[in-house]
Amino acid sequence: MSRRFPVRALFALAASATLLLAAGLTLAAAGSANYVPASVPPVQRQVVWVGTPSQAPHKIVINSESVGAPSPDEFQITYAEGSFTLEYKRHANASVTSEFKLTFSNLVEWNDTNGNGILDDDSILETIPLGPTGFGNLPIRHFERVTPDGGDIHSFLIQSNNQEVTLNLTIAERIVRVSPQEFLTPMEAKLTIDIQHRFTVLGVKLGLEISIQTASTVKLEDTSWDDENHFRQDDRSINVTNDSGPEPSTTFFAWANTANVSGQERAVTVTGPEASDSVPDYYQMYLAYPAPSEVPPSIISVVHDPTLGVVSAAYESLLRLPVGNPNLQGDVYLYAASMVLVAGLVAATIVLASRRRGS
Which end of the chain has fewer surrounding CB within 10 Å, N or C? Predict the structure, then answer.
């Protein structure tokens, strides 16, 4: 066994402890405000998922249907090989009214030679494939818990083949408070990205290349639906809107403007989305994560929290109802549970990787 194994194991435990501490602080901060504001209507959805194969799935299909809304709707998220397909039906049991396929295509090492923060194709020095090449060998792990008001919370842990990227997809049946400034609504899924990358070239930056495929209109917004409805703060989003029907139908991919990069909060910059000249209905974009210090690191860690969601007709119909006095209790343990799961997986990943290299 490699002599370096104990050091790597210690690093894994330290990383886990940091994540656990962060979760604990968030839980403590949220403990004094674990409620959903009375101005928010009681939102309920039913979530059902299927994995293929059933015992150790590599593909999942998640269906979410509104419950008790005057205008019922539904959406479906399908994941396989680094891609998420989001399909939305503004009217339940009807046809799809808005959809897109989002793929985590590559990790890229790039050099900002122009100093403008824009990740151009000619600035990329190294590409680490994701998508079908980088995902699909490892099974998806599912975790479930129930909130005090009876709503299910599902978390799905997805790991890349080289174990550098872990995705935590979390979807809930009720509105859940996950920090003092953030709610997870049933109209979306939280997609936490955890990256542990060793640079091939020192002194450069890390970026995540994302592709979007859709026949609908794609627009970069300076805010997100969650931001505008006071469920999150300081977000941006890609809105995908189908205007061909009697009423517009919108799905979105949103992300926080900051990420935890090697233990520090750093601004996330976006390049694109840019339409392809050769592939119809295909868009490319990059999220860039700057290193936190002037000293070029050899290893960078990133934790970022995007969301996949819909502008829900069911939720809009609930807003039009007379305002009552709902007493929805948020589940402040969701964030802690998610971080515990990620921390454990990160630790196990590093230890297993160390054993493989040392064998």
Answer: C
